[in-house]
Design goal:
The protein is an all-alpha fold. The protein has 20 helices and two strands.
Length: 417
């Protein structure tokens, strides 16, 4: 087992609420041991990092600190709600509950003005995405070789471009940024891709909220339906795993769906999804360039300079790629590097989860349901998602069948070694 014999000294000081059945207080202990020190550690580290950032951005520190405490408590509440065993069984993840918690406040009593200071959606999101890069290791991305790359890197851009074209030319969605966020969310890897793409194309918070909501809803459906359909069709578990890895949006849902079929499906599905995840930075880069050169450039406008493109380029992508490179090199160049990195990634995942949860709470606090309803007018965003996902399912299945059944029938054997 990777990581065996290497302990992470930070693991006891960075944690999140656990599972519970009847008593929510059970979420604060794991195997009879309190996780409160880990919760305090996550809070203090997050508060320190974001307070320094807020100060650099010119925010009022006292106001930010008070607001951050409440945002963190709301994020903890979202984790507790998601940890209830029945809810967890249906994979209703913390992102959904964090968004709902924020929406309830903003659409009932209203979000206090002082709380808006700490609702730094983009700041939390971008920091979390940099940590996500540390979890994407090149040696594991290439474990399946060409079959995995074809399923993840050939199908995904085709689906993204086709879905965006369909939304603009056929459905004529008035907001290109809404079209792009939904297309990236559905074709790349769900919430993380939606977040990165929204930053690249300057999408509104309501547009991002709508894309995330649809993604989470359909993810729950697909993780239940797809394993049952694969079994009913008598499909091989390797092919089924590749199909699910390339189409189910959330990484956690991919693992859960793969586990239903067995170890082969789980390993193939998770590996294909990891290969696909690296496209987050690539897609965000090209979307940023496309937005500057085509979407925001009016007729008769001069071609934007390289400096203007750099100014608009989402810089967090460099952190995302840099973290991936650093951790990948550690695996190769440091003795016991893979086990050390595996142990370290446990902490980066915990922190990333908190940062994303803070971001989803912030999105909810800054969103209005009437505004969200206006984006759904005419049902075009829903049609876009359904058509794009249908195309994605068909093309991914075709590519997975060609790669794993015909061209490289023994490709998945490497995962069993």
């Amino acid at each position: 087992m990777a990581g065996a014999g290497i302990s992470n000294p930070l693991s006891a000081w960075l944690s999140k609420p656990g599972s519970w059945s009847a008593n929510p207080l059970d979420a604060f202990s794991v195997k009879g041991q309190s996780i409160l020190p880990g919760l305090w550690g996550a809070f203090l580290l997050s508060a320190a990092v974001f307070s320094l950032g807020a100060r650099a951005m010119g925010k009022r520190m006292r106001e930010f600190a008070g607001g951050f405490c409440l945002v963190f408590l709301l994020a903890a509440l979202a984790y507790i709600l998601a940890g209830q065993t029945v809810i967890k069984h249906y994979n209703l993840e913390y992102a959904l509950w964090a968004l709902l918690v924020g929406l309830v406040i903003s659409n009932t009593i209203g979000t206090p003005k002082w709380l808006h200071t700490a609702a730094c959606t983009e700041f939390y999101i971008k920091t979390g995405l940099v940590l996500l890069g540390a979890e994407i290791l090149f040696n594991r991305l290439l474990a399946l070789g060409l079959p995995g790359i074809f399923v993840a890197w050939v199908v995904t851009p085709i689906v993204l471009v086709t879905t965006f074209w369909f939304g603009q030319r056929i459905l004529r969605i008035t907001s290109p940024s809404l079209n792009m966020v939904i297309s990236a969310d559905m074709s790349v890897c769900g919430v993380s891709a939606a977040i990165a793409t929204a930053a690249a194309c300057k999408a509104k918070r309501g547009e991002l909220s709508l894309a995330i909501g649809m993604s989470l809803s359909f993810t729950v459906i697909m993780m239940v339906v797809m394993p049952a359909l694969i079994q009913a069709l008598g499909m091989s578990h390797v092919l089924g795993g590749a199909w699910m890895g390339g189409t189910i949006d959330a990484t956690g849902a991919v693992a859960a769906a793969g586990a239903i079929l067995g170890d082969d499906a789980l390993q193939v599905a998770a590996t294909v999804k990891m290969i696909q995840n690296i496209l987050i930075g690539v897609v965000a880069f090209f979307v940023a360039v496309f937005w500057v050169l085509r979407v925001e450039r009016g007729e008769g406008d001069a071609k934007p300079s390289a400096i203007e493109i750099w100014r608009r380029f989402p810089k967090f992508i460099l952190g995302f790629v840099g973290a991936s490179i650093v951790f990948s090199l550690l695996v190769v160049m440091v003795p016991d590097g893979e086990r050390i990195v595996d142990a370290s990634i446990g902490s980066t995942k915990t922190l990333r989860g908190w940062f994303f949860c803070l971001a989803f709470v912030s999105i909810g606090l800054q969103s209005n349901l009437r505004e969200l309803a206006s984006y759904l007018k005419g049902g075009k965003p829903l049609i876009l998602y359904l058509v794009g996902q249908s195309f994605n399912l068909c093309l991914t299945l075709l590519m997975a069948w060609l790669m794993f059944e015909k061209v490289f029938p023994n490709a998945a054997d490497v995962l069993q070694k």
